[in-house]
Amino acid sequence: MRMRRMTKPSLIAVFSLFICWASFAGAAQRPPAAAIASAHPLATDAGFEILNAGGNAFDAAVAISAALAVVEPSGSGLGGGGFWLLHRAEDNREVMIDGRERAPLAATATMYLDANGEPVPRLSLDGALAAGIPGTPAALVHLAREYGKLPLARSLEPAIRLARDGFAIDEHYRAMIGFRITALRASPAAAAIFLHDGEVPTVGDVVRQTDLANVLEAIVHEGRAGFYAGEVADALIAGVRTAGGIWSKDDLADYKVIEREPVHGMYRGIRITSAPPPSSGGIALVTMLNVLSGYELDKLDPITQRHLIVEAMRRAYRDRAIYLGDPDFVTIPSELTEPAYASGLRSAIRTDRAMPSALLPGLPAEVTGTDTTHFSVLDEAGNRVAATLSVNLPFGAGFVPPGTGVLLNNEMDDFSTKPGAPNAYGLIGSAIDGGTQANAIAPGKRPLSSMTPTFLDDGKRVAILGTPGGSRIISMVLLASLEFARGGKPADWVSAGRYHHQFFPDRITYEPDALTAEEIAGLKKLGHTLQVSDRRYGNMQIVLWNRETNTVDAASDPRGGGGAETRATAR
Ligand code: GLY
Predict the structure, then answer these.
(1) DSSP secondary structure letters along 278-311
(2) Across the chain, how many H-helices and E-strands are there?
(3) 413 lines ligand 1 (CB under 6 A)
(4) Cα–Cα distance between 140 and 219 in angstroms, integer?
(5) Atom of ligand 1 nearest to the CA of 391
(6) Which pLDDT score is estimated for 369?
(7) Among residues 1, 76, 206, 332, which is most buried (max CB within 10 A)?
(8) Whether the CB of 414 sits within 6 Å of ligand 1
């Protein structure tokens, strides 16, 4: 990863913070039970089935990822990608498996622009041209081979069963498919699987995915070649190209999972471990917490607290727009996560007035959408997985290459197609000094993500968390991290009201119950513009291990229909 080398003072700071973090003694070494929180009870069950079969948290993560691909196709799938943040208990190894999609080798920076240089509406969102090269199948093979204890055949069993036998549609499925029905209707193979006579199915209807089960079985028998070569690859490429896409055999053959060093930071004695680029999540989270560590938030009134949190969000999302992209293509300043950099940002924050985003470089945008999935796993050896996976918008590109059952992502929309042109989440990329945007499209490049799978560890408690939600993922993980710092229970953290600022558009969006009338009035007085969100957002999944009391807890966001449980498993 091409990040600038750390300066000596920053290395010393990180080292002393780590010593401080590591000095908590007497904490339990093994949890009394395993815990899983995911967006679907059937995926949570799949994880426990694999733990009971003798698998570890990494095998369970394979089973949960594959099960979610079947039962929550709106959020993730074999046609998408994701980040699996791992903590291996035996040697404390922490690593992120980067299974993010890549741009096809024939991609160009201007592929979604018309002759006048303007983005063509929906070209990066709907259909075969919107799809990046999937990373999830390769990541599952890698995870099982490098970290698991069980054969892939066993860990994929629950997903294959669910694909063949079918699963009953729930309210979440219905709500998500409503967003994407036009795109799904345009793909006969997708419509045949996910719609009912071209319409939104009713709750309780059963979805069976025989082609997808066959692809999962090909992966069982042939490993990554079961997806990236042979008959499945031929069918994927033929389907994509017939529908106007640009995938080639080389795209699939060249796809590689990358192991990346997570981003670390400290906030009031809490060690943060989170997603590095090509996610913007970890860097933005650490930047915001560094800024906020300069305030005694709990001693401030609620209006000032929220104002300062919003000002931290504004600045981290601004840096996202300017500096962040695939680290294999752009150099990302390492200073962004340094406390000294945050001090500089903090010095320009006034406690009595909002800073208009227009006074910082950037361009206007709008926020919409919700997507993606997250799950958290802890096994009884103390291994942990925080995984956030995506096909981007609900049901991805809405396109299935015939004969594969694989719903393709529309992750290409996470690139910045043009400086200042907002993507589906209203996120923008900016080019400074007339240079190239960090998140411009290039062949083989990974689009910048907001997915923020995270571990929080204060030496006594370990939290494993994350959420879907597009651009708002990072601010949701920030708010949950601040809740963790205050104490309390995961059930309260996943339920707490949410608010968000992403630099542009220059406004705070908030859930209907997130701010009191007094807080809204107070924030307006400070110069903020506020807009109530039309619906509650996010689907956070948290597992907490309290090593002091040696108890485990798991919570699933009440906004989703997930399953969070703790269970003693056969060891
Ligand atoms: N597709 C959502 C993200 O990666 O941020």
Answers:
(1) TBSHHHHHHHHHHHHTTS-GGGS-HHHHHHHHHH
(2) 18, 18
(3) no
(4) 9
(5) 1
(6) 39
(7) 76
(8) yes
Q: Where are the domains of the chain?
A: 36-257+395-409, 260-369+450-567
* Identified catalytic residue from 136, 273, 370, 372: 372
- What is d(CA 75, CA 173) in angstroms, rounded to the nearest whole number? 10
* C-alpha 181 to ligand 1 mean position (Å): 20
Evaluate if pTM is beyond 0.85.
Answer: yes
The residue whose CA has the least distance to atom 3 of ligand 1 is 449
CA proximity to 427, closest of 111, 535, 514, 438: 438
CB of 556 closer than 8 Å to CB of 38: yes
Mutate which of 102, 428, 449, 537 for ligand 1? The one with the most ligand atoms within 8 Å of its CB, which is 449
Decide: 465 and 386 in contact? Cβ < 8 Å: yes
Which residues, listed in sequence order, are joined to residue 433 by a DSSP beta bridge? Answer: none
pLDDT at 424: 73
Angle at 26 between CA 21 and CA 28, to 5 degrees: 95
Q: Select from 262, 256, 253, 306 the least CA-distant residue to 286.
A: 262
Active site (annotated) includes residue 372: yes
Neighbour count for residue 304 (Cβ, 10 Å): 17
| Ligand 1 binding pocket includes 132 (Cβ within 6 Å) | no
Distance CA 263, CA 272 (A): 8
| Average pLDDT of adjacent 10-residue blocks, the chain of 571 residues | 40 45 65 98 98 98 98 97 98 98 97 93 96 98 98 98 97 90 97 96 96 98 98 98 98 98 98 98 98 97 98 96 94 96 96 84 41 94 98 96 98 86 71 74 97 98 97 97 97 98 94 97 98 93 97 96 93 65
What SS3 string covers 161-220?
HHHHHCEECCHHHHHHHHHHHHHHHCCHHHHHHHCECCECCCCCCEECCHHHHHHHHHHH
- Residue 281 Cα to ligand 1 midpoint, Å, equals 10
Q: For ligand 1, say whether the CB of 390 is within 6 Å of any of its atoms.
A: yes
Pick the CATH number of 260-369+450-567 from 3.50.50.60, 3.60.20.40, 1.10.1740.10, 1.10.10.10: 3.60.20.40
- Please identify which residue in the block is written with the tokens 């859930």: 511
The pLDDT, as a whole number, for residue 218 is 98
Give the chain's length: 571
Find out whether 468 and 540 touch, Cβ atoms under 8 Å: no
Sign of dihedral through CA atoms 41, 42, 47, 49? positive
Reading phi first (left if > 0) and then psi (alpha if -120 to 50, else beta), residue 314 is in: alpha
* Predicted local confidence at residue 179, as pLDDT: 87
